[in-house]
Every structure is written in C-alpha cells, then in structure tokens.
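hey m, so remember when u said the tokens were messed up on ur end? i reran from scratch. heres the input so u can diff it against urs
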Amino acid sequence: MQKKINIILFLGIIILYTACEKETMSPTGELAKIKISPDSVTFVTGESRKFNAIGYDANDNQIDINPVWSVENQIGIMDTYGNFFAAYETPGPFPRNGYVRATYNNITASVPVTIYGELWIWDGSLLNTVVRSENTHDGLDFMLNTAIGQSGNYAKASNGYFFYEAYAAHGGWAFVAIYIKPASGPKGYVNLSQYSRVTYRLKSNSTVANGVVKVAAKDDTDADGSETTISINGLSTSWKSYTNTVSSFTTLDPTRVFLLLEFVIGTDAVSLFIDDVKYLQ
C-alpha cells in the first residue's frame, strides 16, 4: 500500500512540475516588430552591402521571417535577399539620405542610409606612356618635377596603376602630381569644394620609412613649396588604402584646385605605385 502511495505522490509531483513549467514558458506569439542589421550605413556610390532582418514577438522571442525589401528616396537598388547596391545612377545632389525597409505581415522596419558621391581622379587608365616632364595633353594630366641636378626620375601609367620612380641625388627632392593642365594661358583649376576627403592606394618595391613620402594638394595661387604636406606612414610592398580630409590641406583653396594630388619625395630613392585616386563627398 505504501509503495502505491509513493508512486502516486511521485506522479503527482511530475504532473505539477510539468504544469508549472508550461505556465512559465513563453510560447512564440505573433510578429510584433522587426529589427534590421546593420542599423545605419554610409555608402559611396557603387558600394554594396547585405542587410538582415529578424522578427520578434511581444516577448522578444525570435521569429524567422522572409520580408519584402525596399528602398526610399532613390538611394539605390535592393534585391529580394536584402542585398543593397548604391547605384551610380542615384540622382544628386550628394550626400543623399534615404531608408532601407523590411516588411512582413504588415509590420515594417527601416534603417537610415546615406549615399555620398565620388569623383574618380585616377583609375589606372589615364595614360600609357613614359614621361620625363610635363605631358602635352590638355585637361586632367600628370606631371613630375625634380631639384636641379637630380636626374633619372620618371613616371608611367600601365597595368592598371600609376608608377613613379624617384632617384635620390644631391640631397634634392622630387614630386609627381595629378593636375589640371589648361589648353593655354594661366594654370587651370577645378572647384572641389563639394568634396570632403580624398582616398588613394599606394605601395612600393620595398618598405619605406614613415614620412619619406608626403602627400599634398595645391591651388593655383599657392607658391611652390608653400602647400601643406602630410606624411605617408606604413608604406610597404602591399597595397594600402589612405584617406585625407580636404580640410587637412590647410593652405588649399578647394574652389581653385590645381594639383589634385601630389606626392613629394625627399632625399630617398623610392618606387611608388599609385592607384584608385578619388575625391569623396
């Protein structure tokens, strides 16, 4: 008899525990909200990114959803899988603000997206010849210059990048620059006041000490050598991306840019590869 009572009590405890367990569990309910990740993104035209959306009920239990994706304010293109592409056809002016949206069962979430424009200055296709002084083309071009007595320097564009060889001599200097060359008359210039930064990629044939190469931009009124120069650090045999704000070139008038980008080398011999130069808003 006692054995039966113990069994009944044991079963009762299990039933009571199960009932309490069911009462304290929060079963997944109806969709209450959607969260999108990342929750804020900045793009340059031509860039892409995948967005993800997760649904939640009122108790924050996750719910798998397959939302409909859309964009607001013509900031780019969205596919059905959440892949966003900041289209080159995006209308200006820049920066342009909009939203990426995910909708499921009449529930919608959105995240802000900002699109910045870009101005390509160099993509490796400007020239395909070796030059030892200013070239003869009008418009966007490149030049090199050296101290008196310094010889052997040259620049060329080929294989999708820009190459500059500077040989040290007599403690001199050398520079190579992408610039606005007028058809005739005074220096040419371009208004780049709508852009906030310039980006580019560099590498060398060997590791170069910090500060041996410096970058600058120059307007048409700057005296030679008076422009602000900024040291390039971490230059090695691997491509590295660099960014400078336009405002960091403190002597530059951005409404009258003559040398869009200039690389200055001092007394050291340097082989410099340059690629993907562009101004960003």
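this time it looks ok to me. The CA atoms of residues 149 and 225 lie 18 Å apart. if urs says something different then somethings off w ur setup not the seq
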